Amino acid sequence: MATETIKVNSREFVVKKYSFPTEQIPRLDYQDKKAEKLIENGQPVILTGSDLVGSAHHWDIGYLCSNLGSGQYTVYSSADGKFKYYDDKKLTQNKQFKPPTTQTDMTFQEFAAKLKRKDNKELMYLQQPLNDTVGTRIVMDFTNFNWGWANETQKKNHWGPMTSNLLLVGMEGVITPAHYDEQENLFAQIQGYKRFLLFDPSQFECMYPYPIYHPHDRQSQVDFDNPDLTKFPNFANVKGYEGIVGPRDVLYLPMYWWHQVESLHGHGETISITFWYKAAPTVKVVYPLTSGQKVAIMRNIEKMIAEALNDNESMPSFMQAMVQGRYT
Ligand SMILES: CCC[C@@H](CC(=O)O)C(=O)C(=O)O
Ligand SMILES: [Zn+2]
């Protein structure tokens, strides 16, 4: 796999080289009016200076070991370092599906001990919502997040309630392959560096998500390392954005924006916390529709057809019958 070295604020990062062009994600102070405008318009921006999780900037593996308590944490392992999400509620309808990662529950102390081993054959990625099993110092740190700014941003943009804060602790090199989420996300980086590759929802035609009833619903079928342009020809036209998110940075990751996230080598394990919010309600439909709204429409129609047919095998022919020779 070809790599390239990029320099950001006098730091050098070796990153994988892909086939598509990218522009830089804007990087602005969180109080910059331009940053507020980008968030208002559902555009991604890397925010500096917010101290959204300033009270957690001292979190490292040792501190988490001593203060996260003895609760169970979900740890994924992957032989190829890719952690493509799958919905285990959809496994029953897809008997032949082979999960690409294994999931183990363990204490944070067990996870930290595994990180130290030199004979790991697989990469590991801890992904666990912060809950009330954590120790009092973590509760203190959590309480001291910059909730004033977070709540103000949520309110100003009419987002719905915050649904979860996911703690992410990844080994260097872990990759979350391209997918989109249906929630707004303030992504706070605490330790290590993550490269974000983002694609506007209008790139839907280039990203070829799995069918909605597939466990990999919302994930792109395209392997960025070896894109199959026969099966996915439009991927040849995809255009993205990219940026390096480091300690104290907060990325506003808008709903429906595709993203691939890579924990970079040479800077230690990555520690991040997500702040996911339900979407703002659509009070009044304004035309032209946004590309995110069009994805939501496509998704809802696909869902309704799958439910109405109640037979996933007949989905491909039904969907093709709807458009071929008429809209193709
Ligand atoms: C399970 C969530 C993973 C995260 C990407 C990453 O940090 O690897 C992401 O996709 C998101 O925050 O939406
Ligand atoms: Zn995501």
TrEMBL record:
Which parts of the sequence belong to the JmjC domain? Answer: 117-294
Q: Which residues form the signal peptide?
A: none
SUPFAM superfamilies of this UniProt entry? Clavaminate synthase-like (SSF51197)
* Pfam (any one): Cupin_8
Print the organism lineage.
Eukaryota, Metazoa, Spiralia, Lophotrochozoa, Mollusca
UniProt GO BP:
negative regulation of Notch signaling pathway
Q: Name one GO cellular component term.
A: cytoplasm
Molecular function in Gene Ontology: [protein]-asparagine 3-dioxygenase activity; ankyrin repeat binding; peptidyl-histidine dioxygenase activity
The organism sits in which domain of life? Eukaryota
Q: What is this protein called?
A: Hypoxia-inducible factor 1-alpha inhibitor-like
